[in-house]
Prior knowledge:
Layout: H1 2-21, E1 23-31, E2 42-45, E3 51-53, E4 59-64, E5 71-75, E6 82-85, E7 91-96, E8 106-109, E9 112-115, E10 123-127, H2 128-131, H3 139-142, E11 150-154, E12 163-167, E13 180-183, E14 186-187, E15 199-205, H4 208-211, E16 222-227, E17 233-248, H5 257-271, H6 280-283, H7 286-293, H8 300-304, E18 308-320, E19 324-336, E20 343-356, E21 361-376, H9 380-386, E22 421-441, E23 444-463, E24 477-500, E25 503-526, E26 543-567, E27 571-582, E28 591-602, E29 615-629, E30 641-647, E31 653-659, E32 662-663, E33 671-684, E34 689-701, E35 704-708, E36 717-721, E37 724-740, E38 744-761, E39 782-785, E40 788-791, H10 797-802, E41 810-812, E42 827-831, E43 836-846, E44 849-859, E45 862-864, E46 914-916, E47 919-930, H11 933-936, E48 943-957, E49 975-985
Parallel strand pairs: 1-7, 13-16, 32-36
Antiparallel strand pairs: 1-4, 2-3, 2-5, 5-6, 8-9, 10-15, 11-12, 13-14, 15-16, 17-18, 17-49, 18-19, 19-20, 20-21, 21-22, 22-23, 23-24, 24-25, 25-26, 26-27, 27-28, 28-29, 29-33, 30-31, 33-34, 34-37, 35-36, 37-38, 38-43, 39-42, 40-41, 43-44, 44-47, 45-46, 47-48, 48-49
Amino acid sequence: MKKLLLIYWLLLVSAAAAFAQRQTIKGKISDATTGEPLVMVNVQLKGTTTGTQTDATGAFSLAVPDAKTGVLVISYLGYLSSTQEINGNTNLSLKLEKDNKQLDEVVIVGYGEVRKRDLTGAVTSVKGEELKKVPSTNVMESVQGKLPGVDITKSSGAAGARINVTVRGNRSIRADNGPLYIVDGVQYENIQDINPNDIQSMEVLKDASSTAVYGSRGANGVIIITTKKGASGKPRVSVNTYAGLSQVAGYPAMSTGPQYIAQKREANRTTGRWRSEADDPLIFNGAEVDAIKNNLWTDYADLLIHDGFQQDHQVSVSGGSEKTKVYLSLDYFDEKGIFKLDHLKRYSARLNLDQVVTDYLKVGMQSQVTYYDQSGRRDPLNQANKIVPLNLPFDEEGQLILFPNMGSMINPLADEQPNAYQNNGRVTRTFVNAYVELTPLKGLSFRSNLGVTLDNARTGIFASKNSIERSTASTSRSQYNSGNRRYISWENVLSYSKKIGDHTFGLTGVASLLSDQRDSSFLQGEGQLLPSQLYYALQNSVSGVAIRSSYMANKLISFTGRINYSYKGKYLLSMTARSDGSSKLAPGNKWALFPSVAGAWRISDEGFMRGQRVFSDLKVRASFGIAGNDAVPPYATASYLSKIPFSYDDTNSALAYGIGSQIGNRNLKWELSATTDFGVDMSFLDGRIGATIDYYDTKTRDLLLQRTLPSSSGVSTVIQNIGKTRNRGIEIGVNTTIVRSKSVTWTSNIVFSKNKEEIVALADANTNDVANGWFIGSPVRVFFDYEKTGIWQTKEADAAASFGYKPGDIKVRDRDGNGVLNSQDRTILGTQVPTWSGGFNNDVRFKNFDLNFYVFARIGQWINSEYAGKYDPQGLENSAPHDYWTPERETNAYPRPNASVSKDGTPFIRTLGYRDGSFVKIRNISLGYTLPATALQSMHMSNVRIYVTGKNLFTFSKVKDYDPERGGDLSNPLTKMYVAGLNVEF
Length: 986
């Protein structure tokens, strides 16, 4: 017992001694600027797991083993982390600086750059790393749904398909609504040339105060792309490569053989020609009857659609010294579409060079050469979807049957045969932008940019007499189209900045000249001597020789002035005025002035905000400006002559000329858009949540609109300044940091855009243009037709008869209730633009793993579904397997088949195709792994990342087996893709 007490006593003494050695450190942590105490700040003893957090007064208490040598690590979200040596001080007073890295980020704006905190306009910035997350042909596809107010859709699933981009809706009715692209300070229309790996950042300028500096060119928004530059120090080599398999993202099937047979039988039963299977020879030919007996039929779409393949391989080198910086990249992109003959190859090389000559002189250039070799084909699915399926595509020896079952429809596989069809385009585009920059005085700089784009393109098309295109002709046809473009941009920018006390001034002046020249030629001939000559040697053509050529040019001269003012960094003002002169417009109307003004107030920097704990950052913005549009073809102000065949008698011909179909307008002037924008930028919880909200209202007048003239005038159309439109809406962008720890980071971004687009006035201010489908109070693109309410049922025979119809016919709404169905009963069924769109992007990092998950939605859009309208009531062509009406099985979906009434003759047949095309899709799922730094040291690599990506994987909509982003067309359906890639840096 005594021994136990002794041991117990010794343990107590040892514990007391150990406890006596530990010391308690106390302290208080506050904001270095405001002096306000900071709550829940992490305080940790370096090299240990010992730590604590500050209380509501900013105070903390921490027991440490040695107060003389210990080091504290202090971290707090939204503030810069710091370390503090204790040095025996047991009562510390610490101050943390705010982490303004995000607010201090430089954003590229027109002819300059500005810190994000000082922005007065509506500008969205995307860094290069974000652009690489979605493998794509066109970089704009990578940011679909990630930019508030920017609507991006893919036009088709063909290799190298065009991307449609609009910023804040459609302002013009007939003129171009696409944004202006600026690459390294120079206008560049072919954005698909730019590899995402070469991009440093992308900025989208949306409101008039941001775009006004570009005048007429910025009316539809401006997208600025800055490519990567070299850096001093050790050269860095980067290799980015991926390869992926693409598959059709759902394609609805046409009727099978039995389904087609049943529909055609029903169509002829309606007319009394078919009563039983014994009557099949009356409605089917002999070969079709044999196919029915042997259950032979073909799904041609299944034979045409294959898996595609996409790959991209890029290598870049960045390096230089303090005075010379070089960036070089080479890229090879290859995409095979889901059809044979659909193939795109792109080769590109980029060289960016910056050289400091003296302390006040700098020169450099950005250059790129891009070469395309692309093969395409006319839509094969159109033929596949309408050909009668009761046949086989190949004979017993495996040879293609050109006209199956001796029918009139050519085999949809015809173009895939040797020497049958070829459509090949080759484009070489050279872009060079050289600059000289002088900085003779502090704050003063002068920069002169000279950009040249040389575009050479040719397309050759050969269609043999055994191709789909020439199936009804007796000879082949060859076409050779060529074109050249020379685009020159010369801009001179003078900038001066000065700070006087609390006042900061920035002055910018710009003078620019833009010249655009294009020429093209068209050659055609029929009956090539040898199929192997394709579209060459057209002089050997037997007939149909045609030659055309054209030339057009236009110039734009501009002068711009801008003033930026800041007081204490809290009150910001920007004023811009730009004068543009366009050669496209009429004398006396060529010049226009485009002014803008914008202001911002950084409320969070005010003294009265120091005590609050809600906002980490708060800024309000307002702007107003006018932008212009001259998006009409050159020479629209002039009338032109066209050749008219003329003969005095049966043997003597002569040449005659008459006024062309479009008459010139000598009063043509600028289309003008005035935009008001109110915005709020804010962040909460010490920067954990950030949000940007913008409300805008754009009113466009003097639309450049092609107007139809009465035939009695002798001409068809004229372009005039008539009509008004309006776009107004709200944009919301939210960035959140959900989790941020040493091993796990989870950030998410939410984007929401809602735009109301409407026509305010047309040629006659209060009259709709029904012929063109333009309606006051509605968007530019709408579906105007009768409203289908179902199918007339047997019990409704009397009601149907009162309108002149019978059971089994399409029933539409009598909107005016007068008992007569006529054109006055048509209405707007839906719009082709969405009510709202949005995206939800998530990035999760766990140690060396990274996961990206991205969802995109486009809600409220309508489509005219070609599949839904694929219904031939006669059964002469194949249809989709729709639920049609019969006396025994009444339905409200589709009318009764009728062999005596053609598709075009079926009343209200167009109403079958209109569908709600809203969709939500999982746009991207990507999982990557970055090798640890310790594993790379022996391989002399600085970074290696391996990843797999699924693109466009799932689409949820009311339209079955179809991706409605495409619209309603069945040709070239959109695809989904599975990708594996590798990023390596040396």
